[in-house]
Amino acid sequence: MAPGPRTGQEDGTARETGRRSRAGETGRRSRAGEAVARLRAALPTGIGDGEPRGPVRPEYPWLLPSAVVDLAPPRRARRTVRDWIVDSLCFLSALLVGVLSLDTLSRSASNAEVLVDVLLGSLACCALWTRRRRPLGLALVLLVVGPFSETSGGAILVSLFTLTVHRPFRYVAWVGALTLLLVPPYYLVRPDPDMSVTAATAFVSVMVVTVIGWGMFVRARRQLVLSLRDRAARAEAEAALRAEHAQRLAREEIAREMHDVLAHRLSLLSVHAGALEFRPDAPRPEVRRAAGVIRDSAHEALQDLRQIIGVLRAGDEGEDPGRPQPTLAALARLTEESREAGADVDLGVDLGGQPPETVPAASGRTAYRIVQEGLTNARKHAPGAPVTCRVHGRPGEGLTVEVANTAPPGAPAPVPGSGQGLIGLRERAVLAGGRLEHGAAGNGGFRLAAWLPWPA
Q: What is the pLDDT of residues 301-317, one digit of tens each?
């Protein structure tokens, strides 16, 4: 507990603590950013770009379209064996439709017109090999070529199907509407010898609507598969993040417990070891008493450390190899240890006639840790200064804990400290449902006060 004359040092400690807190916050943000990046990398992207990716590679990826096969983010989706087969069938189907339309074309057009029509139709069929990467561009180009080439009808239907599968419906609606609007003028200029304009327009319109509906079904099915994989990936990534967060909380809890327990024991060791160092000619009874306190403190520290290590080794077995946690009833023994170390401690406990065991376990344990940390800091930063400990409360009113010390009799030696003890106490108090405050007192000392809940 830092006294008033050490205000400059406390300011330096506060600045150092703030710097470390900011560094810790930066580290936490960095870890959080890395976790989010890992989560995003694990998830498939939207299928709007035609290249969704997921975290799980299927057992037989060659049987799936490249749009649903997971790939590393820098890579472009390549055709699978299934894609090559489907693309070849689409090319051959468009070519077959073009060949079948040659008979009708030859009866109503000259040889030159047939040659140009066949040339444009062949180019349209060959352009279908680019349908996966540029479905919108291909559909628009074939929409322009269609009125001048009857043999490109099959390629136009395939391009509409591809556009519906790989792009949102707003693009399909515009291209499909333009296609349907161009059908009547086409048959008015180039009538079909076997069907009327109305029948031919109705037949082609039904074909266009059927192809678009089929493409919408395929796209919906792919979106369902990707959404299920997306949910599985999110669940797995979030479970990993929760496990990492739980491990971090467990490490922080263990570190806080070790600080609260070992700092008290080691400060007692330091005080008595310092006394033996500066008073080598002390009477034998005093030397013997100091050595006994050092031995007892070292034994207690080893037991506490063994308890914490035992908790770590217990793992998921649910065993509790350590001793029970201290409660408010152990305050008398805690202050007696400080008195044996030479501290002037005045303890006052007023619980309105209630025994200490009636205080809730969380509040009692937190109150014990607050007094323990206050006595430890007083020995470190204000040696020889009187320390006053007051604990009072009633059921329904709460429990108030106050530890205060006056200014030390002399300039204390600088003691390293990071302020983590006070930060840990504040976290303990908040977790217990209370609050904690600390700061310099009016007499040049230091005051630590907390309020903890005590239900009626």
A: 777 777 666 655 554 44
